[in-house]
Sequence to fold (149 residues):
Amino acid sequence: MNSYNLLGALQRFIKQRGVDMDSLTVDPMVRLMIDWFRLVTIDQLERSASTDVLIYRYGGWSEGCATGFNFSLLRRITESHAAGDTDWIAGITLMFEPSFYANLTPFSTVSSDWKSIEAFLGAIETSSAFTTLTAAKPMSVVVESGGLR
Fold:
């Protein structure tokens, strides 16, 4: 397993669903990621994965003079090995104009913190960012991946 395998699995799922990434908005993005988590098992690990979770987070972001308000749903697979754990991440981030959403306090939660994926989805759908951004068009859509030891 590596970040490219996980990203490739997400990209194949997006293509199979016929999703137009340029027109993706909050609600369809969340449903796409929930379906990917439910329907696509990641079984390419040589060792067993200790966790397979979704991470929902939103909040302001800035790097130098670049700023945005990020709305993300990411899948994190943790691979355990003798040297420790490695987290592999792939998901989608929608970036919005930050000045409109400065009043939204940054938030993050993990699907394993909820009793079921339905409860996790309910938490997303009732969050202030989801309800505020449902009608908004993002500035950009980013499919992202990475790894962390």
